[in-house]
Amino acid sequence: MIIFYDGYCPLCKTEMRHLQKRDKQGALTLVDIQTQEFAAQYPELDWHALNARIHGLLPDGTLITGLDVTHQAWKAVGVGWLYAPLRWPGIRIIADWCYLKFAKHRYTISYLLTGKKRTCDRCVPGDIQQESPSDANAALTKSTAGAEHIKNIESTKGKGGDSGR
């Protein structure tokens, strides 16, 4: 599974470090969307959609977002049961709403919880806009269309190249 995350967010980076420590099987590829190389490696993906919330690309080419990514990522490293209740009907609706609020205000929340500010010069407070469902569907369509390209990139990385981790 490929996880596209915001490397400027202190909490996001912390979660990725914890996932990476537990990923003994190499099930995850972590991709920081804030790197200079991102646009060249994944030109078919909508950076703004990815920046609005975490995204993950499953091996079958399915693009998932938000807490679905979090649950699948932790499941891949053996502790999905911690996040499973967030995917239960009823709880899922509330959890997803809370996640969207978190994602929109993640820099402020990160600062309040960790005392660390985001690590970027070009970010502007409030620059993360809420996506409408139609925007999210358009991003999913665009991203899914590029899934084959991503699979090709990942398969060549596994052949003696750098895996990006």
UniProtKB/TrEMBL annotation:
<protein>
    <submittedName>
        <fullName>Redox protein</fullName>
    </submittedName>
</protein>
<dbReference type="Pfam" id="PF04134">
    <property type="entry name" value="DCC1-like"/>
</dbReference>
<dbReference type="InterPro" id="IPR007263">
    <property type="entry name" value="DCC1-like"/>
</dbReference>
<dbReference type="GO" id="GO:0015035">
    <property type="term" value="F:protein-disulfide reductase activity"/>
</dbReference>
<dbReference type="InterPro" id="IPR044691">
    <property type="entry name" value="DCC1_Trx"/>
</dbReference>
